[in-house]
Design brief:
CATH superfamily: 6-pyruvoyl tetrahydropterin synthase/QueD
Shape: elongated
Bound molecules: nickel (II) ion
Radius of gyration: 17 Å
Structural class: alpha+beta
CATH topology: Tetrahydropterin Synthase, Chain A
Oligomer: single chain
Helix content: 25-40%
Number of domains: 1
Strand content: 25-35%
Order of helices and strands: EHEHEHHEE
């Protein structure tokens, strides 16, 4: 029997979508307004879902306090009020699209979880645009 527990979190961050190996015109063509050299910000909403067996002793899949602390250290402290391109090493050579941010969050959080727990990351870049990644 597998149960999923989820926690929501939030961070603000700035980014620019572009490739260093493309000229400005091609970046403008592909990424449009998101290629603004002066960056732009988003209010990112995160849902981290952890799936596993219920521990017989505690009745928990994961202690929410533990999940909260992992989100704080791996996501909020690392990304909140940061320029993703300039201040977050994972994006030095990785375009900070919602897709890539979700993968980076997944990898950072997964390494902090017991290996028998599954993780799914859902990341909202806007209220209507969101991506999911679960390690597949
Ligand atoms: Ni954007």
């Amino acid at each position: 029997m597998k149960v999923t527990v989820s926690r929501k979190a939030h961070f603000n961050a700035a980014h620019r979508l572009y490739r260093k190996d493309w000229n400005f015109e091609k970046n403008e063509d592909i990424f449009g307004k998101c290629n603004n050299p002066n960056f732009h910000g988003h209010n990112y909403e995160l849902i981290a879902s952890v799936t596993g067996d219920i521990d017989k002793e505690t009745g928990y899949v994961i202690d929410m306090k533990v999940l909260k602390d992992i989100i704080k250290s791996e996501v909020e402290d690392a990304f909140d009020h940061k320029n993703l391109n300039l201040e977050v090493p994972e994006f030095t050579d990785l375009n900070p699209t919602a897709e890539n941010i979700a993968v980076v969050i997944y990898n950072k959080m997964k390494s902090k979880l017991d290996s028998n727990l599954e993780l799914e990351i859902t990341l909202y870049e806007t209220p209507r645009n969101f991506v999911s990644y679960s390690g597949r």
